[in-house]
Amino acid sequence: MKGVGADEPYWLALSAGQLKLPECSACGKAHWPAVWRCGECGSWEQQWTSFELSGTIFSWARTWHEFGASKEFGLPYVSVVVEIDNADGRRLLGTIAGNTENIRIGDRVHGEVISVNIEDENIPALRWYLDGNSSASKASNSGVTL
Fold first, then answer.
1. How high is the pLDDT of residue 43?
2. To 5 degrees, how large is the angle CA 79–CA 85–CA 87?
3. Which of 22, 44, 98, 114 lies at a C-alpha separation of 20 to 30 Å from 6?
């Protein structure tokens, strides 16, 4: 998978089953989305650091209608925004698998890289799974059903 622009290393790593995110080589500022030049110090040098596919659900939405590549996921499916562990607040979008009846913002998740076929091209994507210790009893549940 070839990326477009500054995020190409992200897509190449994801195609290899890894999660890598950029940070400035000069000042250490974490970036996402990827940038060519650090807005903090002006450096053009970025390093790509590996991260575990684990984090916390920041937001989620359940979708009941098909569009685009959604037929790959089955209906309904749940999209999640996950704040990646130890990644300075960076968040990534993916879908969640398994029983999502009691999904809550703040639930812990772990992930894997999957391949989704879009217009005869396999695209790497993130699939998340609720951890066994996720709390379904949290009061805050701001997910949106579409």
1. 98
2. 100
3. 114
